[in-house]
Amino acid sequence: MAKSRKIYLDYAASVSANPSSIHILGVKAKTKLQNARKEVATVLGARPEEIIFTSGGTESNNLAIQGVVLAWKGKNLPHIITTNIEHPSVLETFKMLKKRKLADISIVLVEKDGIVDPKKIKKEIKKNTVLVSVMYANNEIGTVQPIHEIAKEIRYYKKQSAKLKGFFRSSDSRVPIPARPFKNLSVFPLLHTDAVQAANYLNLNVEKLGVDLLSLSGSKIEKAGRVGVLYKKKSVPLAAIFCGGDQELGLRPGTENLSEILKFSHALKSVEITKGKEVKRLTRLQNYFLNKLKRSDIFNNAGMILNGDLKNRLPNNINITFPKIPSDLLVIELSAKGVMASSKSACKSSHSEGSYVIKAIHPESNIEIGGLRFSLGKETTKADIDYTVKILSKILLKLKKWYN
User: Fold this and answer.
1) Does residue 170 fall inside a structural domain?
2) DSSP state of 313
3) Following DSSP, what letter does each residue of 276-307 receive, concatenated?
4) Helix then strand then coil, % of the chain, to nearest 5
5) Strand 51-54 relative to strand 372-375: parallel, antiparallel, unpaired?
6) What Cα–Cα distance (Å) separates residue 123 from each residue in 15, 25, 57, 211, 390?
7) pLDDT digits (tens, 9 = 90+) for 99-111
8) Could you confirm whether 347 is annotated as catalytic?
């Protein structure tokens, strides 16, 4: 039997099959897209219709924050809350909304250990607060934020507000009891978390976290496509920030990047399967690295400081500061010897100023000093760590005049 011919004459729609097309290739592409959506939803413990594909973490964060602000229908200007160590795609979006008088903002300072106090978040909540955005894990110092506890504080605030409005059961029998008391709970404030750095190591179940919105990026997951994801709880009101087609629930117009989306969904599923084993391996390497640093007289003489909480941090992150030696100088010296590290977020690496994250936890320090970040990965070995410590020791001896 002769094989049926397929002639593609829909290049105006896409150079490959467009998931929005109704011909057979378009339908097949749509099926693959929906399967990818299901895979991501399964990892997050969400529904497929709650998954929105974007171009990356930055767009996901912008859609979450701006989308909530634009969806607000209240009389007063919407109020939004974040911390002072968020990724630039969150902090700069907050500042932009304030500058354009689209929202009032509150920026809560983290503690010395790089962890935000949930009680301080709750203290900032007002009647017109529509969103709290706190990153799951910091991209520079690796500290893991108490997202579940923040979610509990927000729920408590909502319940207290509902009680004041008479939506809950009263011990006074004269007070009428509404048939569905929880129905009247305000959807605001919503909780968003930037989980871009957390995907490889932490639990991403949105129900357990208690979040309404969650951002992911393929750029931080091995073999994942160059796309992003925004989880949006079904009940969350969100406005589109771009105009165009009705792809992705009408919230992210533009033809979906199917090949990259498929890479992302497969990679995220794979990471979820191996996560437990890899976290244990990296934790052992992290402890090995830290012990070698702490036991060295050279590092101690140079005044080494570990940045961020030692316990509540990503298993692949080590961030240290030598108070008198610019971290950029150390990065350059290490690079010359074949060791690639960083001094601040790559998104800010072209700026001459130091790390605002390090300044946030060490306000007394010289901002130009910054922090030296080592981030471990799948290919990292003990031999790599031994070599790094050896080279860093030699560099510090060479730079002894900086701290003597």
Assistant:
1) yes
2) B
3) HHHHHHHHHHHHHHHHHHHT-HHHHHTT-EE-
4) 45, 10, 45
5) unpaired
6) 53, 54, 28, 19, 47
7) 999 999 999 999 9
8) yes
Query: What tens digit of pLDDT does each residue of 365-374 get?
Result: 888 899 999 9
- Phi/psi of residue 104, each to 5°? -90, 145
Q: Are 266 and 279 in the same domain?
A: no
Closest CA to 9 of 398, 24, 121: 24
Between CA 339 and CA 350, with CA 344 as vertex, the angle to 5 degrees is: 95
Q: Using one digit for the tens of pLDDT, what is the confidence trace for 127-176?
A: 999 999 999 999 999 999 999 999 999 999 999 887 776 554 444 444 44
- In degrees rounded to 5, what are phi and psi of residue 34? -70, -35
In a domain, 167, yes or no: yes
Per-residue pLDDT of 353-364, as tens digits, reads 679 999 999 998
Beta strands in 166-233 (DSSP E): 190-194, 213-217, 228-232
Give which of 371, 252, 255 is closest to 317, Cα–Cα. Answer: 371
Cβ-proximal residues to 109 (8 Å cutoff; 6+ apart), any chain: 83, 84, 120, 360
Strand partners, 228: 54, 217
Estimate to the nearest angstrom the gap between the alpha carbon of 69 and the chain centroid. Answer: 19
**Cβ atoms of residues 227 and 261 within 8 Å:** yes
Which of 229, 251, 270 terminates a domain? The answer is 270
Counting the structural domains of the chain, the total is: 2
Q: Is 56 strand, coil or helix?
A: coil
Where among 245, 270, 295 does a domain terminate?
A: 270
Same domain for 240 and 315? no
Domain that includes residue 172, residue range? 24-270
Residue 368 in tokens = 């130009």
Question: What's the order of all strands across the beta sheet hosting 228-232?
Answer: 51-54, 228-232, 213-217, 190-194, 129-133, 79-83, 104-108
pLDDT band at 14 (very low <50, low <70, confident <90, very high): low
Which strands, in side-by-side order, build the sheet including 305-306?
Answer: 305-306, 317-321, 372-375
Q: Which residues contact 284 (CB under 8 A, 6 or more apart)?
A: none
| Active-site residue identified among 168, 347, 384, 387 | 347
Does residue 114 lie within any of the structural domains?
Answer: yes
- Residue 10 lies inside a defined structural domain of this protein: no
Model confidence, pTM: 0.90
